[in-house]
Fold this protein.
Amino acid sequence: MAETAYKATHRVRNFFYLFFILLIIWLALTSNFHWQELSVGVLVSLVISLILNKNYLGLGFPPFSIKRIAFFIIYIVVLFKEIIKANFDVAYRVIHPKMPIKPGIVVIKTTLKQDIAKLILANSITLTPGTFTLDILGDTLLIHWINVKSENVDEATKIIGEKFEKYLRVIFA
Amino acid sequence: MELFGTVIIGIGTLFLFIGNLGVLRLPDVYNRIQAGTKCTTLGAFFIIIGVGIIQPTWFWKVLLIALFVLVTNPISSHAIARASRKSGVSLCDRSVVDKTEDFEEFKERS
Protein backbone atom coordinates (compact mmCIF):
# COMPACT_ATOMS: atom_id res chain seq x y z
CA MET A 1 0.00 0.00 0.00
CA ALA A 2 2.77 2.41 0.93
CA GLU A 3 4.50 1.50 -2.33
CA THR A 4 1.54 2.60 -4.46
CA ALA A 5 1.07 5.83 -2.49
CA TYR A 6 4.75 6.62 -2.97
CA LYS A 7 4.45 5.96 -6.69
CA ALA A 8 1.33 8.12 -6.96
CA THR A 9 3.01 11.16 -5.37
CA HIS A 10 5.96 10.67 -7.68
CA ARG A 11 3.70 10.59 -10.71
CA VAL A 12 1.94 13.79 -9.68
CA ARG A 13 5.29 15.48 -9.10
CA ASN A 14 6.63 14.31 -12.46
CA PHE A 15 3.45 15.53 -14.11
CA PHE A 16 3.97 19.06 -12.78
CA TYR A 17 7.68 19.16 -13.66
CA LEU A 18 7.02 17.92 -17.19
CA PHE A 19 4.12 20.34 -17.64
CA PHE A 20 6.15 23.40 -16.63
CA ILE A 21 9.23 22.41 -18.64
CA LEU A 22 7.11 21.85 -21.77
CA LEU A 23 5.26 25.12 -21.22
CA ILE A 24 8.55 27.05 -20.89
CA ILE A 25 9.85 25.45 -24.11
CA TRP A 26 6.58 26.39 -25.85
CA LEU A 27 6.86 30.00 -24.64
CA ALA A 28 10.46 30.19 -25.85
CA LEU A 29 9.51 28.83 -29.27
CA THR A 30 6.49 31.06 -29.89
CA SER A 31 7.88 34.03 -27.87
CA ASN A 32 4.57 35.84 -27.55
CA PHE A 33 1.85 35.92 -24.90
CA HIS A 34 -1.27 36.09 -27.07
CA TRP A 35 -4.09 34.12 -25.41
CA GLN A 36 -4.64 31.81 -28.40
CA GLU A 37 -0.99 30.74 -28.54
CA LEU A 38 -0.91 30.37 -24.77
CA SER A 39 -4.05 28.19 -24.57
CA VAL A 40 -2.82 25.84 -27.31
CA GLY A 41 0.51 25.56 -25.45
CA VAL A 42 -1.20 24.75 -22.15
CA LEU A 43 -3.42 22.15 -23.85
CA VAL A 44 -0.56 20.41 -25.67
CA SER A 45 1.71 20.33 -22.58
CA LEU A 46 -1.18 19.06 -20.47
CA VAL A 47 -1.89 16.15 -22.84
CA ILE A 48 1.79 15.20 -23.27
CA SER A 49 2.54 15.32 -19.54
CA LEU A 50 -0.62 13.32 -18.72
CA ILE A 51 0.43 10.55 -21.10
CA LEU A 52 4.17 10.51 -20.46
CA ASN A 53 4.59 11.24 -16.72
CA LYS A 54 5.08 7.55 -15.81
CA ASN A 55 8.07 7.26 -18.18
CA TYR A 56 10.20 9.48 -15.92
CA LEU A 57 9.67 7.64 -12.62
CA GLY A 58 13.16 6.13 -12.73
CA LEU A 59 14.90 9.51 -12.75
CA GLY A 60 13.80 10.43 -9.23
CA PHE A 61 13.04 14.16 -9.30
CA PRO A 62 13.25 15.79 -5.85
CA PRO A 63 10.28 17.59 -4.24
CA PHE A 64 9.84 21.28 -5.00
CA SER A 65 11.10 23.96 -2.61
CA ILE A 66 12.41 27.54 -2.71
CA LYS A 67 15.76 26.50 -1.20
CA ARG A 68 16.32 24.01 -4.04
CA ILE A 69 15.56 26.62 -6.70
CA ALA A 70 18.00 29.07 -5.06
CA PHE A 71 20.75 26.45 -4.89
CA PHE A 72 20.05 25.47 -8.50
CA ILE A 73 20.58 29.07 -9.64
CA ILE A 74 23.86 29.29 -7.65
CA TYR A 75 24.84 25.96 -9.20
CA ILE A 76 24.26 27.27 -12.75
CA VAL A 77 26.42 30.36 -12.02
CA VAL A 78 29.22 28.14 -10.66
CA LEU A 79 28.91 25.87 -13.71
CA PHE A 80 29.25 28.80 -16.14
CA LYS A 81 32.34 30.07 -14.32
CA GLU A 82 33.86 26.59 -14.60
CA ILE A 83 32.99 26.27 -18.31
CA ILE A 84 34.79 29.52 -19.15
CA LYS A 85 37.77 28.49 -16.99
CA ALA A 86 37.80 25.11 -18.76
CA ASN A 87 37.97 26.71 -22.17
CA PHE A 88 40.93 28.92 -21.31
CA ASP A 89 42.66 25.97 -19.65
CA VAL A 90 42.32 23.70 -22.71
CA ALA A 91 43.17 26.58 -25.09
CA TYR A 92 46.37 27.22 -23.10
CA ARG A 93 47.36 23.54 -23.26
CA VAL A 94 46.69 23.36 -27.00
CA ILE A 95 48.52 26.56 -27.97
CA HIS A 96 51.57 26.01 -25.70
CA PRO A 97 54.42 24.66 -27.89
CA LYS A 98 55.34 21.84 -25.49
CA MET A 99 51.74 20.87 -24.64
CA PRO A 100 51.85 20.60 -20.80
CA ILE A 101 49.59 17.54 -20.54
CA LYS A 102 49.81 14.60 -18.14
CA PRO A 103 46.78 12.47 -19.06
CA GLY A 104 45.35 9.48 -17.20
CA ILE A 105 42.14 7.81 -16.11
CA VAL A 106 41.27 8.11 -12.42
CA VAL A 107 38.38 6.94 -10.25
CA ILE A 108 36.18 9.11 -8.03
CA LYS A 109 33.31 8.26 -5.68
CA THR A 110 29.96 10.00 -5.33
CA THR A 111 27.40 9.95 -2.52
CA LEU A 112 24.50 10.95 -4.78
CA LYS A 113 21.70 8.38 -5.14
CA GLN A 114 19.28 9.48 -7.90
CA ASP A 115 20.04 8.86 -11.56
CA ILE A 116 19.25 12.45 -12.52
CA ALA A 117 21.71 13.75 -9.91
CA LYS A 118 24.47 11.48 -11.21
CA LEU A 119 23.69 12.58 -14.77
CA ILE A 120 24.00 16.25 -13.83
CA LEU A 121 27.23 15.59 -11.91
CA ALA A 122 28.77 13.65 -14.82
CA ASN A 123 27.82 16.31 -17.35
CA SER A 124 29.19 19.07 -15.11
CA ILE A 125 32.46 17.20 -14.69
CA THR A 126 32.72 16.88 -18.46
CA LEU A 127 32.34 20.65 -18.83
CA THR A 128 34.95 21.58 -16.18
CA PRO A 129 38.70 22.12 -16.70
CA GLY A 130 40.58 19.10 -18.01
CA THR A 131 38.22 16.32 -16.95
CA PHE A 132 35.52 14.26 -18.61
CA THR A 133 33.42 11.31 -17.50
CA LEU A 134 34.16 7.97 -19.15
CA ASP A 135 31.62 5.83 -17.35
CA ILE A 136 29.40 5.58 -14.26
CA LEU A 137 29.35 2.23 -12.44
CA GLY A 138 27.09 2.45 -9.38
CA ASP A 139 28.66 5.09 -7.11
CA THR A 140 31.97 5.12 -9.00
CA LEU A 141 32.81 7.55 -11.78
CA LEU A 142 35.66 6.92 -14.22
CA ILE A 143 37.26 10.23 -15.15
CA HIS A 144 39.78 11.02 -17.85
CA TRP A 145 42.00 13.82 -16.55
CA ILE A 146 44.25 15.80 -18.86
CA ASN A 147 46.55 16.87 -16.01
CA VAL A 148 46.55 14.25 -13.25
CA LYS A 149 47.17 15.91 -9.87
CA SER A 150 46.41 12.91 -7.66
CA GLU A 151 45.88 9.19 -8.27
CA ASN A 152 44.30 8.69 -4.85
CA VAL A 153 40.51 8.16 -4.93
CA ASP A 154 39.66 10.51 -2.03
CA GLU A 155 41.91 13.35 -3.16
CA ALA A 156 40.69 13.11 -6.75
CA THR A 157 37.09 13.19 -5.51
CA LYS A 158 37.88 16.32 -3.50
CA ILE A 159 39.52 18.13 -6.44
CA ILE A 160 37.10 17.12 -9.22
CA GLY A 161 33.70 16.40 -7.72
CA GLU A 162 33.37 18.32 -4.47
CA LYS A 163 32.68 21.80 -5.89
CA PHE A 164 29.53 20.52 -7.64
CA GLU A 165 28.52 17.81 -5.22
CA LYS A 166 28.05 20.18 -2.28
CA TYR A 167 25.30 21.97 -4.24
CA LEU A 168 23.78 18.82 -5.71
CA ARG A 169 23.59 17.19 -2.25
CA VAL A 170 21.36 20.06 -1.09
CA ILE A 171 19.23 20.03 -4.26
CA PHE A 172 18.68 16.26 -4.21
CA ALA A 173 18.67 15.72 -0.43
CA MET B 1 23.74 45.93 -31.37
CA GLU B 2 24.85 44.35 -34.62
CA LEU B 3 28.50 45.18 -33.87
CA PHE B 4 28.23 43.59 -30.41
CA GLY B 5 26.68 40.45 -31.88
CA THR B 6 29.40 40.20 -34.50
CA VAL B 7 32.10 40.50 -31.83
CA ILE B 8 30.44 37.68 -29.85
CA ILE B 9 30.33 35.50 -32.99
CA GLY B 10 34.01 36.30 -33.56
CA ILE B 11 34.92 35.12 -30.05
CA GLY B 12 32.96 31.92 -30.69
CA THR B 13 34.83 31.32 -33.93
CA LEU B 14 38.14 31.78 -32.13
CA PHE B 15 37.19 29.09 -29.59
CA LEU B 16 36.12 26.72 -32.36
CA PHE B 17 39.44 27.34 -34.12
CA ILE B 18 41.37 26.46 -30.94
CA GLY B 19 39.23 23.35 -30.57
CA ASN B 20 40.13 22.22 -34.07
CA LEU B 21 43.80 22.95 -33.46
CA GLY B 22 43.57 20.79 -30.34
CA VAL B 23 42.06 17.90 -32.29
CA LEU B 24 45.02 18.10 -34.68
CA ARG B 25 47.78 18.53 -32.09
CA LEU B 26 46.89 16.36 -29.07
CA PRO B 27 48.22 12.80 -29.05
CA ASP B 28 45.34 10.33 -28.50
CA VAL B 29 41.56 9.92 -28.71
CA TYR B 30 40.80 10.88 -25.11
CA ASN B 31 42.82 14.09 -25.15
CA ARG B 32 41.27 15.02 -28.48
CA ILE B 33 37.82 14.55 -26.98
CA GLN B 34 38.83 16.99 -24.23
CA ALA B 35 39.57 19.69 -26.80
CA GLY B 36 36.62 18.68 -28.95
CA THR B 37 34.12 18.96 -26.10
CA LYS B 38 35.15 22.05 -24.22
CA CYS B 39 36.05 24.42 -27.00
CA THR B 40 33.11 23.45 -29.18
CA THR B 41 30.65 23.84 -26.30
CA LEU B 42 31.61 27.44 -25.58
CA GLY B 43 32.28 28.21 -29.26
CA ALA B 44 28.86 27.02 -30.40
CA PHE B 45 27.28 28.75 -27.39
CA PHE B 46 28.86 32.12 -28.26
CA ILE B 47 27.96 31.85 -31.96
CA ILE B 48 24.33 30.95 -31.24
CA ILE B 49 23.98 33.76 -28.67
CA GLY B 50 25.60 36.18 -31.13
CA VAL B 51 22.97 35.33 -33.75
CA GLY B 52 20.31 36.00 -31.10
CA ILE B 53 21.80 39.42 -30.31
CA ILE B 54 21.90 40.47 -33.97
CA GLN B 55 18.31 39.30 -34.54
CA PRO B 56 16.51 40.06 -31.21
CA THR B 57 13.18 38.50 -32.26
CA TRP B 58 14.89 35.11 -32.37
CA PHE B 59 16.57 35.49 -29.00
CA TRP B 60 14.46 33.03 -26.95
CA LYS B 61 14.45 30.32 -29.63
CA VAL B 62 18.17 30.70 -30.00
CA LEU B 63 18.67 30.46 -26.22
CA LEU B 64 16.73 27.19 -26.29
CA ILE B 65 19.06 25.80 -28.99
CA ALA B 66 22.10 26.89 -26.95
CA LEU B 67 20.68 25.09 -23.90
CA PHE B 68 20.21 21.87 -25.87
CA VAL B 69 23.78 22.08 -27.18
CA LEU B 70 25.02 22.58 -23.62
CA VAL B 71 23.09 19.54 -22.34
CA THR B 72 23.78 17.10 -25.17
CA ASN B 73 27.44 17.84 -25.94
CA PRO B 74 28.84 16.14 -22.78
CA ILE B 75 26.67 13.08 -23.38
CA SER B 76 27.96 12.56 -26.91
CA SER B 77 31.60 12.96 -25.82
CA HIS B 78 31.00 10.48 -23.00
CA ALA B 79 29.51 7.96 -25.44
CA ILE B 80 32.47 8.23 -27.83
CA ALA B 81 35.02 7.89 -25.01
CA ARG B 82 33.26 4.91 -23.42
CA ALA B 83 32.92 3.11 -26.75
CA SER B 84 36.58 3.63 -27.65
CA ARG B 85 37.75 2.45 -24.20
CA LYS B 86 35.57 -0.66 -24.43
CA SER B 87 36.80 -1.52 -27.92
CA GLY B 88 40.39 -1.34 -26.69
CA VAL B 89 41.84 1.96 -27.86
CA SER B 90 44.92 2.44 -25.68
CA LEU B 91 46.09 5.65 -24.03
CA CYS B 92 49.09 7.58 -25.34
CA ASP B 93 52.64 7.07 -24.00
CA ARG B 94 52.58 10.20 -21.85
CA SER B 95 49.69 8.87 -19.74
CA VAL B 96 50.52 8.34 -16.08
CA VAL B 97 47.67 6.21 -14.75
CA ASP B 98 44.88 3.98 -16.09
CA LYS B 99 42.43 2.66 -13.51
CA THR B 100 40.02 1.07 -16.01
CA GLU B 101 41.98 -2.20 -15.68
CA ASP B 102 40.37 -2.73 -12.24
CA PHE B 103 36.84 -3.01 -13.60
CA GLU B 104 35.14 -6.08 -15.03
CA GLU B 105 33.26 -4.01 -17.61
CA PHE B 106 36.49 -3.09 -19.37
CA LYS B 107 38.26 -6.46 -19.21
CA GLU B 108 36.95 -7.98 -22.46
CA ARG B 109 39.17 -6.20 -24.89
CA SER B 110 41.90 -7.37 -27.18
